[in-house]
Every structure is written in C-alpha cells, then in structure tokens.
Amino acid sequence: MRSNRHSRAHARRLFATLTACAAAAATFATSQAQAASVEVLHYWTSGGEAKSAQLLKQMLEQKGDTWVDFAVAGGGGGNAMTALKTRVVAGNPPAAAQIKGPAIKEWADQDVLLSIDDVAKAGNWDRLLPPEIASVMKYKGQYVGAPVNVHRVNWLWINADALKKVGAQPPATWDDFFKVADALKKAGITPVAIGGQPWQEAETFETVALGVGGAGFYKKAFVDLDQATLKGPTMIKALETFKRLKAYTDEGQVGRDWNMATAMVINGRAGMQFMGDWAKGEFTVAGKVPGKDYLCVAAPGTQKDFTFNVDSFVFFKVKTPGVEKGQKDMAGLLMSPAFQEAFNLNKGSIPVRQDLSLAKFDDCAKKSSADFKSAGASGGLVPSWAHDMLVSPAVEGAFYDVIGNYWVNKDETAEQAAGKLAVAAKTN
Ligand code: GAL
Predict the structure, then answer these.
(1) Burial class (CB in 10 A: 0-12, 13-18, 19+), 50
(2) Which of 370, 366, 405, 399 is nearest to 384 (CA)?
C-alpha cells in the first residue's frame, strides 16, 4: 500500500503534468488561432520573380502565418487569371490573388473581396501612395487592393558588349534604333529578342506607339479609345514601325517566354529587348551589373514618358475561419518599408510607397524613380494597357488579338490593323 506521503507527491506530479499539458495545448491553440494559412495565387515563376515571391513567403511566415503557394506560370498573368476564375466560380477562391488595374473594381463589384481599409488607414496609405495609384486600389472609397511596386514598361535593355562591338550608342530615336539594329544584324547578333506571345507583342507595340506618337497621342488612343486616333495616320505610322521590328527578330521566337528572351540579351545572343523592368530581375539573378554588362534606356522617343504597371494583391472572402488574420497580415506586409525595399530590389521595380530611400537601389531604379516623378509632373505618365492597367479585360484581349495577328501576318497592312484596333476598342 503506498504511503500517504507518496500518494500526495504522486498527485502533485500528476497535477503538474496535466497543467503543463493544458498550458501547451492552450499555447498551441492560440498559436494556431494566430497562425493563418494564406493561399496566394500569383504568376511570378521566372528566376527574378520567384526570388521576389519567396521573400513575401518568408516575411509572411515570420509573422507566424502559413503561405500556401498557388503559382500559375505564364508571363503577363493570362493563365493565372483563367485559373482564378475557375476557383471563384467553384466557390473556392484563394485567400489572396495577384490582381491589378481595373480588374480590381470588376472583382469588387462581385462582392467577393475583403476590405483592407483598416490596414490601409493604420498604415497611412493615402499619404504614402500617388493618388492615381491609390484610386486604383479602392472600391467605393475603401481599399481592397494592396500595391507592391511600380514597374516601368517602356524600357529597352541592351547588351553592353554587343553595342560596343558595333561601335554604337544607345538609340534615342527610331531612326537611330534601326541603324543600331542593322549594325547588330551585320555582326551576326540577333538585334531584338522577343517571345512570340500575345502579351509580349502587345507590350512591344504599346511602347512603339508611345515613342512614335507621344503621351498625348497614347492617351487619346488608349485612354479615350478615340476612334479617329485609333485608325488615324499616327497609329498607322506606329504600326508600320512596329512591324519593321519583325525583320530584326529571330525565327525561334514562337512561344518563347519573356525571360528566355531576356536570357538571349544576358548571354549576348541578342543585342536588345523591349520589356518592362521585371527583366532587370533576370539580369540581377544572373549577376549582371547595369552600366557595365547591360544598359537600361528609355525606349526610343519615350525618354520623357513612363508607362506604369503596378502589381497588387486583392483578398477574397473565404469560408475558412481565421484566414482573415493572415490576409490582413499580408496586406500590411506588402506596404511595409522592409518588404517594399527587399522585394523591389529583387523584382526590378521601384517601391510604390513614396517615402522610401533608394540608396540601396541601382542606377536603373534611380532613373526609373526620377522619370516616374518628372513624367507625373509633365503629363508623360501613362498606364500600360498591355499589362491590365487601363482598358477592360475584354478590350485588352481584343487588342492582343489584333496586334498578334498583324505581327505574324505578312500581308496585313498597317491601315487594316489600325481599323481593327478601332473595332476592338468597342468590345464589351
Ligand atoms: C506583368 C507583371 C510583372 C511581371 C510580368 C511578367 O504583368 O506585372 O510583375 O510578372 O508580367 O510576367
């Protein structure tokens, strides 16, 4: 028979064990309540993009939340948007999705987005964001989108050795451009790297149109969707200039991803690429140095202009309890100084919050920031229609079709393509 003293000691030990277990269970429960699982749809799958997305994952997990990766490959995001629609129609949206531009309001109209206005108010986003960007993130005055960056689209990336090899300077005008392209071709270097995908052709055309016609023309054509401008002489000249590029590209372009085209410039197989500055993320991952290995210059004729493309995330109302905490954590993180600096250093873009120092950023980023400000003041700041920042998805898709068909169809004239752009602008 155990003595009373032993029984009391045993009871004390048992109680202590049970209390410890209860405390551990409570802590686990609290941590689980605090830890939210956030499924994130994005299309950042290239080298530079994936590294940037990884940063977001790491920083969200440092907050104790779990990142569930829902990555859908395909530059420009077309595949990702298709996947998203399927999930939303099935009543099972991801907690967060990379959505930008007018599509934010289109989704908000469906009453499927979570308001993050409390996070935005706490973070003073109205004070930190340029008003034209803040307004894109709002629905009926409330924030439903969290912006992460400002990409510039109208860049021309040039392999420095290739340019030196032909003894040329970075082209400032389209006449200069074609002289450099001829010299590169003669030297056996593919002058222009491009991927034969609708969004890449559309983006290249968008940049040519800006360079040939200027910001005023660009706004009349693509913001106002003015019929006369869309089929007028300046548009025809822009389309002719765009088609002239074809002879300076290679046969292997069909279906090529944008980052594979960037790799051609990185390794010197091609001399130049028209691409947004997510391309810089690829040069960075390859250990290349701007000003030494490659040059970032405004595309010909667009030195005073800035075509902006702002990546952002929206947050869907989901049934699973507790996820909202992770969604709000992520929204706050996206606009935090630490994330804005680290992410944009890798992504090739510049921070969207305007109060950050660019001391750690390279000369391309510093130039982008200076041009963003000066273009904003001079009327040269224009939204990219090729990257979902301007027209409806229906009109954007119709423009993609017109430009893509014109690029591959040797017999189609610029006049015919211009007429089709005017019709496409009326798609709803
Ligand atoms: C853009 C997006 C960029 C980059 C690029 C290539 O639409 O805003 O962040 O991902 O596509 O995929």
Answers:
(1) middle
(2) 399
290/315 same-domain check? no
Torsion angle (degrees, nearest 10) of CA 59, 62, 68, 72: 10
77 CB within 6 A, ligand 1: yes
Q: What is the pLDDT of residue 35?
A: 76
Distance CA 6, CA 10 (A): 6
User: How far, in Å, from the CA of 110 to the mean position of ligand 1?
Assistant: 25
76 lines ligand 1 (CB under 6 A): yes
* Bridge pairing between strands 151-152 and 306-309: antiparallel
pLDDT in tens, 64-93: 999 999 999 999 999 999 999 999 999 999
* CA separation for the pair 243, 241 (Å, rounded): 6
Residue 103 is which amino acid? A
- The tens digit of pLDDT for each residue in 250-265 reads 999 999 999 999 999 9
Q: How far is the C-alpha of 7 from the C-alpha of 1, rounded, in Å?
A: 10
Q: Are residues 215 and 242 in the same domain?
A: yes
Whether residue 67 contacts residue 76, with contact meaning beta carbons closer than 8 Å, is answered with no
Element (H, E) at 297: strand 294-298
Category of 355 on φ-ψ map: left (φ > 0), alpha (ψ -120 to 50) or beta: alpha
49 lines ligand 1 (CB under 6 A): yes
Taking a C-beta distance cutoff of 8 angstroms, is the pair 279, 152 a contact? no
- Please answer whether residues 282 and 262 qualify as being in contact, where contact means their C-beta atoms are separated by less than 8 angstroms: yes
Angle of helix 414-424 versus helix 233-244 axis, rounded to 10: 120
CA of 277 to the centre of ligand 1 (A): 9
218, part of any domain: yes
Ligand 1 neighbour 387 (Cβ under 6 A) = yes
Q: Is 44 in the pocket of ligand 1 (CB under 6 A)?
A: yes
> Are 112 and 70 part of one and the same domain?
yes
- The verdict on 415 and 336 lying in the same domain is no
